[in-house]
Automatic annotation (TrEMBL), chain A:
CDD domains: WHTH_GntR. It comes from Actinocrinis puniceicyclus. This is GntR family transcriptional regulator. GO terms for molecular function: DNA binding; DNA-binding transcription factor activity. It comes from the Bacteria. Residues 12-80 form the HTH gntR-type domain. The keyword Transcription regulation applies.
TrEMBL record, chain B:
GO terms for molecular function: ATP binding; ATP hydrolysis activity. Residues 5-229 form the ABC transporter domain. The keyword ATP-binding applies. InterPro entries: AAA+_ATPase, ABC_transporter-like_ATP-bd, ABC_Transporter_VariousFunc, P-loop_NTPase. Gene3D superfamilies: P-loop containing nucleotide triphosphate hydrolases (3.40.50.300). Keywords: ATP-binding, Nucleotide-binding, Transport. PANTHER family: ABC TRANSPORTER ATP-BINDING PROTEIN ALBC-RELATED. Pfam families: ABC_tran (PF00005). The lineage of its organism: Bacteria, Bacillati, Actinomycetota, Actinomycetes, Catenulisporales. It comes from Actinocrinis puniceicyclus. This is ABC transporter ATP-binding protein.
């Protein structure tokens, strides 16, 4: 079962942090379809947060088709991430690693790469107006 | 749905000094609401008026749609005062029994279970309890009557971080079970960020801003970038806080529309940064911002 952690200084709303952690675990294969998510009460007992925040995060994930609520039983994982074709993903990962090696050989440090990457990300995904598109907002951080 | 607390022109005066003046606000029900603001803004006075411990000098306050001093209302409202008034020579068990005598709908077993879970010995004299245990007992006493609305005034300001976490854990578990409305005043913004869905910033008796905590966070950004590009940002968005050096600008904005931040470094803002920035700019209120926005629209 997923173990939620919170970053109190991130400025990212708590429900977004929870949803993001579920997506992250899905991407890493730590959560799989059929797995049960902790109940709101269990999360509250661990993190001392507002129970409605947990429900809000689960609703968000439900809208994305990643989890489903079974009445009386709890909330379960129903979807998988990432959504792309596995072969294509592997190819992209290889190309990215290649690019990173090239950047390093060109004398770029970690921060240089992050700055380049950040700028390219913003250009590609065109930063949306905050509040207008929460989902992308969560992905970005 | 009836608002949990509704105040119109509410004021309370001590001699010639107003502790709260012309306060108009409404707090939604079935939420956990944080009440923040500088000392002297009138938070405590507002809470005392809402539980009927003080009578208004002006205006009106209604709680769960009714007069707070009505006995029928009092049975539905719980209150934990800042100094947690308890009888020091009573034992914990005696305190809980007292709760039973004073409240028509009292759940002794539940209160006892709650206290036992927190390692507060029932035979201990209240005067010998630690700060954290006292707070837990005061909370158990307020929760024992199963209130629909719980008002809590600065509950954890004198507690260590662990006791604070325990206090909020019990409170939030109770919210999960009962769905009660909670109004919580505190200076500890990190705690409020985790627990409050709705936030009200009170400044000089007035509501400076009020709204959904997640929306507040989503609507504010900290931008760092070239100073000569700041004017364009400031023309479309509300500047909450700004610092300039010769070439650089750091601005916290309330986003009023699509944000074109090319060339700017954009960061999220924590609730703490946000509230501090507004406290330093008391002229910026929900009302003045809305008015300014309307004036900006070319006619």
């Amino acid at each position: 079962m997923i173990d939620f952690q919170l970053d109190g200084h991130s400025g990212v709303a708590t429900y977004l942090q929870l949803a993001q952690q579920v997506r992250h675990s899905l991407r890493l294969g730590l959560l799989r379809p059929g797995d049960k998510l902790p109940t709101a009460k269990e999360v509250v007992a661990k993190l001392a947060i507002n129970p409605n925040t947990v429900l809000k995060a689960y609703r968000e994930l439900e809208r994305e088709g990643l989890v489903g609520a079974r009445p009386g039983a709890g909330t379960f994982v129903t979807g998988t991430l990432p959504s792309g074709d596995p072969g294509e993903l592997e190819q992209l990962a290889r190309e990215l690693a290649q690019w990173l090696r090239a950047a390093r050989q060109a004398g770029l440090g970690r921060e240089d790469v992050e700055a380049l990457y950040g700028a390219a990300m913003r250009e590609t995904f065109q930063e949306p107006a905050p509040g207008a598109q929460r989902q992308t907002e969560a992905e970005k951080v | 749905m009836t608002d949990a607390v509704e105040a119109v022109g509410l004021g309370r005066r001590y001699g010639r000094k107003w502790a709260l003046q012309d306060c108009t606000l409404s707090l939604p029900s079935e939420r956990v609401i944080g009440l923040v603001g500088p000392n002297g803004a009138g938070k405590s006075t507002l809470l005392h008026l809402a539980v009927g411990l003080l009578q208004p000098s002006a205006g009106e306050v209604r709680v769960l749609g009714r007069d707070p001093r009505d006995p029928g209302t009092l049975a539905r409202v719980g209150f934990v005062a800042q100094d947690k008034p308890l009888y020091g020579h009573f034992t914990v068990a005696e305190t809980l029994r007292m709760g039973g005598w004073l409240n028509p709908a009292w759940e002794y077993k539940l209160a006892e279970k709650r206290v036992a879970r927190l390692d507060v010995p029932l035979t201990q004299k209240v005067g010998k309890l630690s700060g954290g245990q006292r707070s837990q007992l005061a909370l158990a006493l307020a929760l024992g009557k199963r209130p629909e609305l719980l008002l809590v005034d600065e509950p954890v300001s004198d507690l260590d971080p662990l006791a604070r976490r325990d206090f909020f854990r019990v409170l939030m578990e109770e919210v999960a079970e009962s769905g009660m409305t909670v109004v919580l005043s505190s200076h500890l913004l990190a705690d409020l960020e985790r627990t409050c869905e709705h936030l009200v910033l009170l400044s000089r008796s007035r509501v400076q801003f009020a709204g959904d905590t997640d929306d507040l966070l989503a609507r504010h950004r900290m931008l760092t970038g070239p100073r000569d590009a700041a004017a364009a940002i400031e023309a479309t968005h509300t500047v909450v806080q700004a610092d300039y050096t010769e070439r650089q600008a750091s601005v916290m904005i309330r986003v009023n529309g699509p944000l074109d931040a090319t060339g700017w470094q954009v960061r999220n803002v924590s609730l703490e940064d946000l509230v501090l920035a507004y406290m330093a700019a008391p002229h910026l209120t929900d009302d003045t911002i809305e008015t300014a926005k309307k004036e900006q629209v070319p006619s």
